[in-house]
Amino acid sequence: MFGRKAVEKPQEFSVVSSNPESFNKGKALSPDEFARFYDSYFPRLYRYLSYRTATREEAEDIVEAVFERIIGKFHTFDSKRGSLDAWVFTIARHILSNRHRYLSRHPELPLEDGFAAELGSGLSEFVVEQEDIQRLRRYLGRLSEREKELLALRYGAELPHRRIGELLDMREGNVTVRLGRIVRKLRGFFEAEENE
Amino acid sequence: MNKGDFDHIEYGKDESAELKRDTAFARHLETDWRFEPIPENQARLRRKLMVGLAQTAAQTERKGWLRLPALRGWQLATVALLFSAIATAVVVLVSVAISSTNDNPSAVANNVSQTLPSINDSANNKVLSLQDANTQLGFKATQPTYLPAGYSPDKASLFQPSTRNLGIRPAFPAIAPTLQLKYKTNSSRLLEAYQSELIQNLPPEARERITNMMFNMAGRTNKYKEQVVQGVRGFLIEDNNWKIGFGGRANTDKSDDASTLPLNGFPLNFYRNAQPSGGFLEYHAPDTVKSARALVWRRAGVVLVLVSDDNLAVEELQKIAESFQ
Q1: Nearest Cα to Cα of residue B239 among A109, A110, A113, A100
Q2: Which residues of B touch A42 (CB under 8 A)?
Q3: In whole angstroms, what is the distance from residue B192 CA to residue B283 CA?
């Protein structure tokens, strides 16, 4: 109703859903399991980070750091203590907040546009961003950290509200209400600029 | 969009229209307005991580009595503290022992092929020779033949991206081997030299397409100037934090020239840019240093960075740089 469309559920990591006991504490990932794990989580982590970072480069570096941490720590994952989604995105959030702390101490300046041009043709596709994405980045800057996190977990990581609540220590209903307000707020920013 | 995303809004006639617009807007959020993964980058990282996984598996799959019980946070912290205290003591003892044999600057000056003192020559804790360093670096490392009075060689370190500790890196690590040479004085003055090959800092597919490497520089305004070092264009940077861009021209035969970039950064580190043939080199002086100055230049594809505090005159720094062989 009201324009809702059936959206495919985010892909679950099949090994976990079929046999959660196989990931009990103390076991490391086999190469085959890791491959499936990676294919399942890479896009979601990347999209999540696309809402929380300024550039593709930064998103890719953080995704790499997250997977490295996961490889090193997977034997500590205990499915009885929480879902794999929550575990993975908690790691991502920790690394991201460390990165933000680092940047607050050592701020980076953006590359001049001229540099991309200097690097020669054929590379521009990596730096060209749609105008709307750039606008969204600007508007995201007006949201609180909590609001950005909610948005990233929902529309980037595609986590269900229940999982988001688990991660942010919120009730599922509260997540729903907050998300609705954030979307309306963002829409307001877009529409206000268009009406100017 | 999830069922229930907009359940919170009580709707009337107008509200249902608002809801539809919210829904349409939210659809952009989950489709158009986010970065989508680049398949080649995803595949490359996958290959790289699989290698890391094999190494980690070898470490965690220990058998028998070697398998330690899982430790809690405070237990790990205690063990780490003890370990670091012992390691510090060992490093201090080794440094003292080594420095006593290398106090004379001419030891470096007249013996380029001699053994370098080392602090972190990977796991074997052996003294690092230039030959070993060259093998691991993939290019010929150099040393200055001149050091001002009172300065002597202290330590050499090889930063190997493949041997980094995956769990505790501070930011983004070197992506190619980098040699660090440290020099000491009696009054804790800063003098360090770094060397790394630019092309190794690019992903393999970019290396194949590169015909010329650019080396672009700009500190924050007025904190740097161009300076010729060893007959090539270099930069004198008088700032504690800076960043340099480097990149290659893909399939062009334009000459090597430089344009400016705004930059800043970490002790000395390289990292890849989103553009496949570009990257950054960052430097961040230790907090104990009030004013750092650096000479940066490129020789045969190897970038050299010589850093000191302001106790060393620019002329002296230049003289050391000119003496790299």
Answers
A1: A109
A2: 37, 42, 45-46
A3: 12
pLDDT the model gives residue B321: 94
Give the pLDDT of residue A195.
Answer: 73
Element (H, E) at B47: helix B39-60
- Across-strand partners of A67? none
Question: pLDDT tens digit string along A182-192?
Answer: 999 988 888 88
The minimum CA-CA distance between A187 and chain B, rounded to whole Å, is 7
User: Which pLDDT value is given to residue A142?
Assistant: 87
Enumerate the residues of chain B whose CB falls inside 8 A of the CB of residue A105.
none
Interface of B with A in 151-170 (CB under 8 A): 166-167, 169-170
- DSSP-based three-state secondary structure for B191: strand
Q: Going from the first residue of chain B to its last (325 residues), give the mean pLDDT of each consecutive group of 10, the final group possibly shorter.
A: 53 67 81 76 84 68 50 75 87 67 38 42 52 78 86 75 37 60 80 82 61 49 75 82 63 33 38 55 77 85 88 92 89
Cβ density class B29-48: b for 16+ within 10 Å, e for less: bbeebbbebbeebbebbeee
Using 50, 70 and 90 to split pLDDT, how confident is the model at A75? confident
In what order do the strands lie in the sheet containing B178-184? B152-159, B178-184, B191-197, B302-309, B292-299, B232-237, B224-229
DSSP A170-188: --HHHHHHHHHHHHHHHHH
Return d(Cα A7, Cα A22) in angstroms, integer. 29
Global pTM reads 0.45
Cα–chain-centroid distance for residue A177?
20
Q: Give the C-alpha separation, B183 to B192, whole Å.
A: 6
* Inter-chain residue contact B45 with A106, CB threshold 8 Å: no
Which pLDDT value is given to residue A19? 43
Which of B137, A98, B83 lies closest to B129 in space, CA to CA?
Answer: B137
Q: Which of A8, A74, A83 is nearest to A38 (CA)?
A: A74
Across the interface, whether the CB atoms of A61 and B24 are under 8 A apart is answered: no
Residue position matching structure tokens 């996190």: A149
